[in-house]
Amino acid sequence: FKFRRNWSNQDSLKNSQGIRLVKHGLNKMEFKEEQTKLKYFVLLNAAKEGEKKLSKSQLKKLAKKSKKPKKEKPKWNLPGTKKKKKAPPKVQEIFVNKTPKGEKKDMTTEMANAYDPPAVESAWDAWWEESGFYSTDVEKAKSAPPEEKFVMVIPPPNVTGALHIGHALTCSVEDALARWHRMQGHSVMWLPGTDHAGIATQAVVEKKLWRDEKKTRHDLGREKFLDRVWEWKNEKGNTILNQLRRLGASVDHSRSVFTLDEIRSQAVTHAFVTMFEMGIIYRKTRLVNWSHALNTAISDIEVDNEELKGKTWKTVKGHDPKKKYEFGTLTSFAYKIADEQGKATDEEIIVATTRLETMLGDTGVAIHPDDPRYKHLHGKFVVHPFNNRKIPIVLDSELVKMDFGSGAVKITPAHDPNDYACGERNNLEFISILNDDGTINKHGGKFEGLMRYDARVAVEECLKELNLYRDKVDNAMTIPICSRSGDIIEPRLKPQWWVDTNDMAAKAIESVDSGELKIIPEFHKSTWRRWLTDPHQWCISRQLWWGHRIPAYKVKLDNQETEEEVWVVGHTEEEARENASKKINVDKSSIMLEQDEDVLDTWFSSGLFPMSVFGWPKPNDDLDAFFPGSLLETGHDILFFWVARMVMMSQTLTGKLPFSTVYLHAIVRDRYGRKMSKSLGNIIDPISVIEGVTLQQLHDTLKNGNLPEKEVKKAIAGQKVDYPDGIPQCGADALRFGLLANITQGQDINLDINNVAANRRFCNKLWQVTRFCLGICGKDLEPIPDFLEKLKETSTAFPLATRDRWILSELAALVKSCDNGFRNYTFADVTYALSQFWTTKLCDVYVEAIKPIVYKKDPTTEDKAAIEMARNTLLICLDYGLKLMHPIMPFVTEELWQRLPGKSKESPKSIMIAPYPMPKDVEGLYSEDAVLAYTLATEVSQKMRSLKADYNVTGKEVKFFLAVDDARRGVIEECKSDMNVLGGGLVNVLNSNEEPPKGCSMSIVDGHLNVHILLKGAIDAAAHIKKAEKSYAAAEKLLASTTKKLNTPRFVENAPEAVLKETKAKAVDLQAKLEKLKEQVEEFKSLL
């Protein structure tokens, strides 16, 4: 075995969860030996770390175990030994799709022996799309009432790359809902699109440009660089749409949009101009999140917060990679109080900061007005040590806490949100000390030109030289990190375009409070209200080239700047010139316009998505038919950044909500609960799960990406742990089912990709039961006309057996469960109900129960009637069951449903447009008597199998005797033949007061029903007695040893708490085992 962490690392040894072993060809004995060594080292190191020490006897015992000689491995293939012939390996045939694109797959071919995802999932998507099943009639939708229409837009994924598992969850949820509504005959519009992703896309292309040509975007110029981005988008942009097809997404591909296409761009320009004219969009110099690496402002969602517990040394993007800088400390220094002439006195006031370099931009020192220590300093000034600037001492009860630190706070309004607010309250000067690239500007005096964290070090040294440095202590803090570049974000003052969200947010809150807009799950309402109660002003300027260029123009007169900066907007430059002419009352001919170089925040165009996709703002049939939408489905992490902005912009620009319901799904994390991250190597392409992928292929994907080499190595190490054998081929249906099965409202999903493979086996269950049905029914079976309808009218319409009525009742219950689950967005309930029905009820019970009937040779007239009922019942179960499953597993259900016999020319062409079973369709089908009866029969059968297993009894001739109350004797008699099959024995029902024969063992079903198995003659009692007595002796000896240990004070006092608890539990278990073995010995003796 190879240990993933060093043996000598005591911390890792102490952490049992952190130790992993990887098998490297060792035999079983070697494995146990290494396990013992590991336990020895863990316990020994735990003792060294100050925990309760192990007794000498414990240590000796462990040492003795670790020294046990290894048993020699059997030596095979020596001279004279017979070599066993190996079976030739099965050759897996690679499936080749021979169906022409858009044509229906040939269902007359022989059904394969087993489920094969590539074969099953081929051709269907193209046929569905070609058949027009993904699109909807606009005129029909216009006239349809809201309850018969379902409109949803896909959250547009970034065009920068490929979908990941989180996107696959979104797709699975939305497609399940779209198919469910479509099967109900509703007009369904599910519209796809991709987002231009301003920062991400520009960053990718810039990296590629530098990697391939060693050029920057500035080397090319704006227009040529944008041409390169469009080339890249056109080359890579179809990846996502192809992934959607592989996942089975039934989106209307003919309507696919891109947020930077012409129609969407016109909508963005119109929205900006309209909101500017309404006074909602304005220009102002305010604080923004500035990324020096990207040289742009970024949104809050693009900022990750890194928690530091104390002093931490870090490398910083843009700085010398060989240097590390100190974070997580609070540095105190003194400001000298100024006299009336503004010169420094000996009196001082101490302030503290976690960002020492910002003191270069300090313009105030705040104290609490009620602080008695500083009453005499009201109205005074301090002197800046590096430029002798007078800094006012201001009174601020909002910012300052008298009992925190010195009670005095340095104020840098241009570089901190709290200081900014304080600066505005107290009319302080705003001094920005940084250039766009992160260097200190002219306001930094002698520190000008230094990178910001080099300046931090230099400022500290200078303060020490001036004897103004006072102290430094560890300080827990949060560092804002740019998620795009890894750079540390700096709050900076920038003239930008802003959206005043106050009134918009108030309307959005009211729409939820009134119930006009529903948010599911409901607990997210509090988040909605919390975010929008204090929404902050929305900065929509981005210092990029890729995106919607802001339709705002700076006005110049005859190439001269105006006295005050004047900005105008317009749908076109000509319209903007006319607006400028009116605004400053100057002839158009003397006006020069300079368009803003910046582009709009990507979330601005995304906020218009529900209406821009249908051609807003121009009136048209699509808008009339599909806007507002029905549902917005997305992850809860972008409730404010996207959902709230769509609501605010739609209400402002159209007076309507963009949708009536918001469903927020959980966030997908890896099996350890970690966020999906490229650097961790846990971001998985859904296609890798669908098709299967080797470990090397996972590594290659990382190497061909944009991660730095250091991050690639880290990610590869993570992949080796999580996917040592790669990812097995699962198929899209299995992946979708696995994702939906993990959705529990209110919790994130810790998804183990390896567990998805189990759902492939579930698909094979569906496959095999359908093969069985075709085998017993044949392709030409003519089902009984109106079989289900007649049963709903009267349960005695046909001579159904109890098992038939039971499985149809379970089917009726399944229909209601699925309907309830879809209506309430409880997808895990739907998948659970479906898996329980198909696996534990239909396949494991009903199919097994009817096999002796349908396979019976020379059936009687009564048998033939039972066979006909079984065939029709099974066919109904498969037809309804596949339809119920279809929204979740579209491919395998279509493949199997197409093969079911009994279809007519009037039957739907596809399962995806077949009627979805609804509660009204099975009304009257549920029989409580049949459910109670057959549930009892299955419980008895389970007890029969358990008794056989307990005593290792094989064969189907084992006799069972059932003691049952009179009220249920008839039910048991009726189901006796089925219990024989399901329980694997011969059931005899005892009369009242009749005792079972001697030599039986009993198992209790309930207080009035016992199952007895006749062991006499079925087992070798003497051998069982010998075995039980041997086990008894061993357990007795071990119990004595354990009891002695627990009675030893030295052990009790020195053993670790966990070891002591385990030893006590062991003693209790051994005592129970002895009593059980004693009972067994007596029981076996009675059989002699």
List the helices and strands and how they pair.
Blueprint lengths: L1 E2 L6 H5 L6 E2 L5 H21 L7 H11 L50 H5 L2 H7 L7 H6 L5 E5 L11 H19 L3 E5 L1 E2 L3 H16 L3 H4 L1 H15 L1 H10 L9 E2 L3 H16 L3 E11 L4 E3 L4 E6 L3 E3 L10 E3 L1 E10 L5 E10 L10 E4 L13 E3 L6 E6 L12 E4 L5 H9 L26 H14 L3 E6 L2 E6 L7 E10 L2 H12 L4 E3 L3 H10 L4 E2 L1 E2 L9 E6 L2 E2 L5 E3 L3 H12 L6 E5 L3 E2 L1 H6 L1 H4 L8 H6 L2 E7 L3 H16 L4 E7 L2 E3 L15 H6 L3 H9 L5 H14 L9 H10 L7 E3 L5 H21 L9 H7 L8 H22 L3 H28 L6 H25 L4 H10 L28 H23 L8 E6 L1 H9 L1 H8 L2 E4 L10 E7 L2 E6 L6 H26 L2 H6 L2 H29 L3
Parallel strand pairs: 3-4, 5-6, 14-16, 21-30, 29-30, 31-32, 33-34
Antiparallel strand pairs: 1-2, 7-8, 7-20, 9-19, 10-11, 12-13, 12-15, 12-18, 14-17, 15-16, 20-22, 23-28, 24-25, 24-26, 24-27, 33-36, 35-36
Helix pairs in contact: 2-3, 7-25, 15-16, 15-21, 23-24, 25-26, 26-29, 26-30, 26-31, 28-29, 28-30, 28-32, 29-30, 29-34, 30-31, 32-34, 35-37
List the defining traits of the structure above.
1088 residues, 37 helices, alpha+beta, 7-stranded mixed beta sheet, 4-stranded antiparallel beta sheet
